[in-house]
Write a structure and sequence with these properties.
Layout lengths: L7 E4 L10 E6 L13 H5 L2 E6 L16 H11 L4 E6 L1 H12 L4 E7 L17 H11 L3 H13 L5 H14 L5 H13 L3 H5 L5 E6 L10 H7 L4 E5 L6 H4 L1 H14 L8
Length: 273
């Protein structure tokens, strides 16, 4: 286990038989922390024992003196997550979830991603993605104005949502709740989003997989869905209407319904009588 371990907390299930509840791990995205999941926590706790983890250098997690790579994040998460668990990851956290599922197939029982892609930027054979220059620009202006760059990125997360103004306000509140993330973690996270290519990784996953996309997401455009289906034809997926990059903030009830239906179909939780 690393000397400096990420902040993590496990919440007992509120269901009828909490001792037998299965473990679910939540992994947040770039620049934020685990409080971003608060609106859907009651619905998840009715069925699962839930562990939240803050990525290194974000939220309440310390930042070890290691290279901030995807492998580093996977090692950090694996050190504190339950021995066997279902994973839910948003954006950068979705990438970490894919890599975790590939490295530890015996530990990751299923994977749900939201606003995530195996490749966030355009490359050969992968046209429906962001231009790398967009993330390069965020990195450049970040050096001059860290807080301002974070706010602009959060606004991009919410652009296109039917509840855009409320979503931005909510994410700003969450951002400042634990203080601003470490600059090195933010720069490293942007580099992962720009450079990581998990297409082969995603194609090889054997666990049950649900990928959720916002219809108006400006970071992971819905047009990428056919390319992802080509990589992993067996995956389940859903396109959430009128939502952008943070559907669990925009419409928690709709998001929960999609997730819980998947878990029921996979017999991970029971159908309600």
């Amino acid at each position: 286990m690393p000397t400096l371990i990420p902040f993590h907390n496990t919440y007992q299930s509120t269901g009828a038989d909490p001792e037998r509840a299965r473990d679910l791990v939540l992994l947040h995205g770039w620049g934020l922390h685990s409080i971003v999941w608060d609106d859907i926590m009651p619905g998840l706790l009715a069925h699962f024992r839930v562990t939240v983890i803050d990525l290194p250098g974000m939220g309440q997690s310390p930042l070890p003196n290691d290279d901030y790579t995807l492998d580093f994040l996977v090692t950090q998460m694996a050190a504190v997550m339950p021995a066997r668990a279902h994973i839910m990851g948003w954006s950068l956290g979705g990438m970490v979830g894919m890599a975790l599922a590939a490295r530890y197939p015996e530990r990751v029982l299923s994977l749900v991603t939201v606003g995530a892609s195996p490749r966030f930027t355009v490359s050969d054979g992968w046209p429906a993605a962001m231009a790398p220059a967009i993330l390069d620009k965020f990195t450049e202006v970040f050096e001059e104005d860290e807080a301002g760059t974070l706010i602009r990125f959060l606004a991009l997360n919410c652009k296109g949502s039917a509840t855009q103004r409320d979503d931005v306000r909510r994410l700003k509140d969450i951002l400042y709740f634990c203080g601003l993330p470490a600059g090195r973690a933010l720069r490293g996270g942007l580099a992962i989003l720009r450079d990581a290519d998990l297409r082969d990784t995603l194609a090889g996953l054997k666990q049950p997989l649900l990928m959720l996309f916002g219809e108006n997401d400006n970071l992971v455009p819905a047009a990428v869905i056919p390319d992802i289906q080509h990589l992993h034809p067996e995956m389940d997926w859903a396109l959430l209407a009128d939502m952008a990059h943070v559907p669990f903030v925009s419409a928690p009830d709709i998001y929960l319904q999609a997730v819980l239906d998947f878990y029921r179909e996979q017999e991970i939780i029971e159908w309600e009588a």
